[in-house]
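2024-03-11 09:14:02 DEBUG pipeline.ingest accepted 1 chain
2024-03-11 09:14:02 DEBUG pipeline.ingest length=165
2024-03-11 09:14:03 DEBUG pipeline.predict start
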Amino acid sequence: MPIPARQTLPALGQYLLTMMLISSCATATTGSPANSPDKPAFNWAGLSHDERKTHMRDAVLPTMEPLFIGHDGQRFASFGCKTCHGRNAQQRDYAMPSPDLPTLYPSGAKEQIETLESHREISTFMFQSVTPTMRELLRLPPYDSKTGEGFSCFYCHPRGEPEST
């Protein structure tokens, strides 16, 4: 699917998109803590490779596939492990972040704002649907900007270093 040409947003629109990405990379939640009483203790980092593979197969794939296909059935018609983990996922042992995903930049960086302007639809989908759903599926806490811990966009996407201004 071709990426639409960059469109400049009015100042208010640019501000709102910037605030949206700050929120998406910082505090996206779906309402319940990662290990709330209604969910058994779960430690993604402590799972073995086989346990992670089973969780991805039994929980993540069946949840994320219809989410992506529902967003864009043509673009994500062949949704699978490689969609997120990349072309050589198996050779890289499914490590994340994936070098095949678009590089993202910290909130407020010029490159981040440009990405939001030129990729508004997918950025909104990622913020509103993908990030909170994956965070819940992996039962990870939301990103905390003070500690630098928790689930954020950079869990899956490579982190770019913004140009100096």
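2024-03-11 09:14:41 DEBUG pipeline.report The helical segments are 11-26, 49-71, 81-85, 110-118, 120-138.
2024-03-11 09:14:41 DEBUG pipeline.predict end
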